[in-house]
Write the structure tokens for this entry.
Amino acid sequence: MGLPVADTPCRRVLVADDSPVVREMLVDILVEQGMQCAEAADGVEALALARKEPFDLVITDIQMPNLDGLGLVRALKADPQLRSLPVVMLTASQEEGLMVAGLGLGADDYLRKPFSQQELVLRVQNIFNRTRDKALLLATFEKYVAPEVVTEMLERGYRLELYGEKKPIVVLFCDIRGFTEFSEARDPREVVGVLNEIMTIVTEIVMAHRGTLDKFLGDGAMAFFGAPIAYGDEALRAVRASVALLRRLAAWNQGREARDRIQLGIGIHAGEAVVGNIGSAARLSYTAIGSCVNVAARLVGVAGAGEILLSREVRDGAQPTVSCDELTPVVLKGIKGLFPIFSVPWQE
């Protein structure tokens, strides 16, 4: 089912057109729909207003004096503070090249004059709906994935839903070795500071490899690859993220006394899991549930300091790019028989 959304706030629209009659008509239609409007007679005036006041949308004529609509779009998209501001272009010209040029510069939609009130309202509402969807995705996923992944989700038409789906994923657990002893010998503020630094490194590495940071688990973390977007090389990216994480941690440890160094153990397994947004509309958690998650959690418990342990499924998915050493099979809780494991050699 779709997520309920809060009532739409009052939208502010900047209308730029050198015709007072057209501006008045546009403003009347938009105000009737509950929006607030500001007017500009050309692109220069519109750009100054956009830099001075916050707006949710710009509607601009293409043919205007001083700075035309194409120049206005170009200036808006070149400004880091304004480039995400949606733009709808208006023109009485039948020349297709003008529309193509505007869309190429980053405009979101266009209308040909004369247009109906219904057409204008529908185009504007469609843009606001896309903006709302983007805001919801950002609010939900910005703590789990890198910004470029959210952008790709939008481009692929991902919709935020309150349900789960079965997906093949690769699950990565990492855990600090000997952290209990480390924390007992130090001031709590120092312990929390170190833990925050390590988890910041984990977050940056996972997101840099387009993984999803699921949760922090005291002195460890869980991440997975393959959802919300699958790229087909999840096992390889998970292993590369693990190697990058241990190398980054080795650099962090440089210059520290042996007693102050932090070591991680890492376990990775691949399989099918239920992945989705769990919780309520007010508080969602994007997470993965399933036996493959449990196996990865068991593997990290076996991994030693500075060790990356893989299941056979991950080893097979990462080959031939990654070379692995086969280790003595182990007994994992909840799994019958011996479980094959592999380690990934890495150099500091």
The chain has two domains: 12-133, 161-343. The domain at 12-133 is CATH 3.40.50.2300 (Rossmann fold).
